[in-house]
Amino acid sequence: MKKRNPIFLILLLLLAIVLAAGLVYVNYMTRAIYGLPGKSVSSVSALKHGLLLYQGREKMLATATGNGLPEVKFSVEPGQSVQELCANLEQKRLVQSADLTCAYLIYSGQDRNIQPGNYTVPMGLNAIDVANLISDVTRRDKQFTIYAGWRIEEIAAVIDGLGLSFSAADFLTLATAPPEPYREQLEIPQGMTLEGYLFPGNYSVKPDISLQDFIAEILTRFKTSVLTEEFEKDLQNSGLTLHQALTMASIIQRETLAEEEMATIASVFYNRLAIGMRLETDPTIQYALGYDAQKNTWWKSPLTFTDLEANSPYNTYRNPGLPPGPISNPSLNAIKAAVAPAETDYLFFRAKCDGSLTHNFSKTYEEHLNFGCD
């Protein structure tokens, strides 16, 4: 049997030592950069993905650009694969490499922790930070909805259930006595609240958002959604100020949920104002009365004759013209109707008796009475 060359054996041994030392070094550096592999991750998988991560460490440590935005909303969809998620991160320029980001999620075992939802990703993070953020359910955005026609107190009732850094009481304090910067940017009259300016819709906010940023996000939605060039033109033609238009819109919103009749209801109110007739609209009474503890609602119904005598500037049965301010937070459709009413001769409207929650419209009081339900 031919003997192996001792020098060859020595070289093989040295090569094995160098390779082992290299693996030890790479493993050490990988753990120094990325931390220990996940407890549920096999040694083979940790080694495989650790080598990839070590080779791509420059891309993984590079900070996100996010298309130049200060922060980016990132959505994890239900049933989305990790590969699809990582591809979306790269597309939004939150990471430089989808493959390397996936490798890190698998290496760290966090690919199993990702839950659907929206996440707010600030710029200045590297791919490791981004992957850690979207794998941490405690950093998932809080979702909430402001429904059209809600008053400030109804919005506040949602806040305590969100687990934010501020309370419903904090929100109410600021919303009912907004600081001067809020008044200036929206020309809110002195003594008025943010009622009417808290734009309805679905919101997604980071869990550590401050009260000031929370309000600012809602008001920004209002400005971008409402204060368009078309709206400004219609507002000027209406002869109303923005505050008056929102007041009108808030009443329209509480009178109907049917978008197709909002402009017609607006015409009734404009026609009444034009002849000096009181608006005589129940929602303004409901707003003046406030919370009804017996029925657990802010919108008491039905109203009594005594209710109609409520001593309040918001009582449009007793006081002419518009009330001092909005009585709810109206939708975009109600706001548009307030500044672009239909052209009609109607002076009255009454709920139909068919349960459709829509209305019959009348030009005379006699006709109006004929639409009563048996």
Structural commentary:
This protein has 16 helices and six strands. With 374 residues, it is mainly alpha-helical. It folds into three domains: 27-140, 2-Layer Sandwich (Dna Ligase, domain 1), CATH 3.30.1490.480; 143-226, no CATH class; 239-370, no CATH class. The strands form three sheets. It has a two-stranded antiparallel ribbon with strand order 1-2. A hairpin with a 7-residue loop joins strand 5 and strand 6. Helix 7 runs antiparallel to helix 8 (168-176) and helix 13 (262-274) runs parallel beside helix 15. The protein is elongated.
Annotate the secondary structure layout.
Blueprint: H1 6-34, H2 43-55, H3 57-61, E1 71-76, H4 82-91, H5 98-108, E2 117-122, H6 127-134, E3 142-146, H7 152-159, H8 168-176, H9 180-186, E4 201-205, H10 211-226, H11 229-238, H12 242-255, H13 262-274, H14 282-289, H15 332-339, E5 348-351, E6 359-362, H16 365-370
Antiparallel strand pairs: 1-2, 3-4, 5-6
Helix pairs in contact: 1-2, 2-5, 4-5, 7-8, 12-13, 12-15, 13-15
Distance between the termini: 115 Å
| Major sheet size, sense and barrel closure | 2 strands, antiparallel
Order of helices and strands: HHHEHHEHEHHHEHHHHHHEEH
Number of strands: 6
Q: Which stretches of 5+ consecutive residues score pLDDT under 50?
A: none
Mean pLDDT: 91
Count helical runs.
16
| Principal-axis shape | elongated
- Helical fraction equals 40-55%
Give the count of structural domains. 3
Strand content: 5-15%
Which structural class should the secondary elements be placed in? Answer: mainly alpha
Report Rg.
31 Å
Strand order of the largest sheet: 1-2
